[in-house]
Amino acid sequence: MIAAPVSQAAVQLPARAGLWARPAQARTITADSIFAYMDGAGELYIGYRFDRLEVYEYTAANEYDILVEIYYMAAPEDAFGLLSLDWGGEVVDLGDTLALEAGRYRTPARALYGSGLLRLWGGAVYARIMAYNETECSRSAVLYLAAVIARQLQPAAAPELLDRIPEHPLPGCRIPRENVSFLRSYLVLNSLYYLSEENILNLNLDCAAVMAKCQLDGQSPQPWILLLQYPDALKADAARQRFSDVFLPEMQDGEHVCPTEEGWCGFRVEESMLMIIFSAPDQAWTEKLMNSISL
User: Fold this and answer.
1) For 146-181, how does the pLDDT look when each residue is reduced to its tens digit (9 = 90+)?
2) Is residue 37 within 8 Å of 53, Cβ to Cβ?
3) pTM attached to this predicted model
4) How high is the pLDDT of residue 218?
5) Which of 88, 118, 224, 241 could serve as a FRET partner for 13 with CA atoms 20 to 30 Å apart?
6) Which residues of the chain are in CATH 3.40.1000 domains?
7) Does the domain formed by 160-292 have CATH 2.40.128?
């Protein structure tokens, strides 16, 4: 696995959170041990540039435990990607203000809470804090731990690739921010929109992709937009060719839009960027959508 060094210093957690106390040392999980730690879910984290995971189990007498998982990733966009796979839950305000850097706003930690589970992104860190039994007391402890973690994280911007997805690309078409996910792995992509058991888009940790679900009134299924960024133009075109051969075998040479069982599909490649539209209502709409997005 290729991963750049993580600059984020280790997060320091308090010895206590309300009634709960943590052990003296964290349990450290690496790429070599993540599958032993979590059966079946390790691929999700390896699908981003995962560095390590630190685990604390807070315990209290006569109370269920509170689990704290702190994932250290290679870059903020990898940690953001983990949060972006599920935008559900109550938005939690952890304070701090926006910072402006290089013309782009960098946000403080973002947190979502629901049913005892809080998920948080800040800088190159993604964290999960889970109370096994949700009570007012455990909720307060979870939010306290989240605030402590958030104060130690650097503000970061969402991946720049998301800026290419307009919120209103066409009349009657809306793409809410909560419908947009960042990814690098074809296994993660399959969890959002199943394509194939094989990696037909040649995705790996050197690539970046954004998957966005459109909202059209009265349209079923809803269209999807997939933007992929490859290290160079040759790899982008190779991915386009393999995708076309496997997913659109009936498409004729020179065509870029065709019908499928799920609706119309189209693609466009420019230099290192590849865009694919899935489940669109008709040919004209597909082409208009592709032309509305700048690569």
Assistant:
1) 999 998 898 888 999 999 999 999 999 999 989 999
2) yes
3) 0.91
4) 77
5) 88
6) 160-292
7) no
